[in-house]
């Protein structure tokens, strides 16, 4: 699944908030947006069709009711799926090697990664 820049802005709001949001919530929370307020419903419906979000319920706002939405995956799950959805997929060892070259890799992160690898080894 590939998301447009505007769809990513909507997803970022959802991921950062962590809760179910309505159309009005998106308009109130998104400060730097590339889309018009009137097109938020089009973006939400597009994300629903792509399976990136799901309806979480209904909320009353003044005199009207509106749907609320939640993401169907985390930010990390989205980017992992995106990497492996391209025609030319990276080799996993090379990908991890490149990620480990990032400047924000710490000893604590490596310890956490090692624990995840050990757990996956137990599952295999």
Describe it for me?
This protein has 124 residues and is α+β, with helices and mostly antiparallel strands. The chain folds into two domains: 5-71, Arc Repressor Mutant, subunit A (Orthogonal Bundle), CATH 1.10.10.10; 75-123, no CATH class. The chain is 53% helix and 15% strand. It has helices spanning 5-17, 23-29, 40-50, 75-83, 92-100, 107-123, and strands spanning 21-22, 53-61, 64-71. It has a three-stranded antiparallel beta sheet. The longest helix is centred in the C-terminal third of the chain and has 17 residues, at 107-123. The mean pLDDT is 88.
Structural class: alpha+beta
DSSP strand tally: 3
Per CATH, the architecture of the largest domain is: Orthogonal Bundle
Low-confidence stretches: none
In angstroms, what separates the terminal alpha carbons? 28 Å
Largest sheet: 3 strands, antiparallel
Return the average pLDDT rounded to an integer: 88
Q: How many DSSP helices?
A: 6
Shape: elongated
